[in-house]
Amino acid sequence: MSDHLEQSFVKQLKDNQNIIHKICRLYTTGQDAHNDLFQEITIQLWKAFPKFRGDSKFSTWAYRVALNTAITLYRKSTRSVSTISFEGQYHFINPEDYNHEEEEQIKLMYQAVQQLNDIEKALVFLYLEDKDYTEISETLGISEVNARVKMNRIKGKLKKILNP
To answer: What is the CA radius of gyration of the chain?
Structure first.
């Protein structure tokens, strides 16, 4: 591939890597699994990049590729490895920046979202990213009406999970 194509890809990836990290956090537990999924998504984005025509924003396209990669990988995954969560990644946060209560709420929300199916997780993720229903429907390949209906059902599910 040309240097220009590679430079364009690297810039777009750098500008949008938070999207990929958030999807990895949603579909994995543990830093090793996160890193593996991030790497696999990056590879899939790179392989597909020459076909990216710019019909949609790069971020919308990257969401689609990343979500499809995450869903495909975790549907294929038949073995499960018992892991222990390591919370040592917070060592770089200054104590004054750390809000324990907020962190606990975020953990509870992620635990609740982990109980949803793959499409529901993707929809919640896009919703929490403040994507409008037009972009959500484009990314997931469903109608806007279907996206709204699914989101309302998911909100109900999450309320039941978080407030049994």
So the answer is: 17
- Which three-class secondary structure state does DSSP give residue 29? coil
Residue that is last in its domain, among 48, 82, 116: 82
Query: 157 and 135: one domain?
Result: yes
Q: How far is CA 79 from the centre of its chain?
A: 22
Structure tokens at 13: 């990836």
* 65 touches 48 (CB < 8 A): yes
**Amino acid at residue number 49:** F
Q: Residue 27 and residue 49: Cα distance in Å, rounded?
A: 23
Query: Is the whole-model pTM more than 0.70?
Result: no
Number of domains, the chain: 2
Contact call for residues 103 and 60 (beta carbons, < 8 A): no
Relative orientation angle of helices 133-140 and 144-162, to the nearest 10 degrees: 100
11-47 residue pLDDT tens: 888 888 888 888 888 888 788 888 899 999 999 999 9
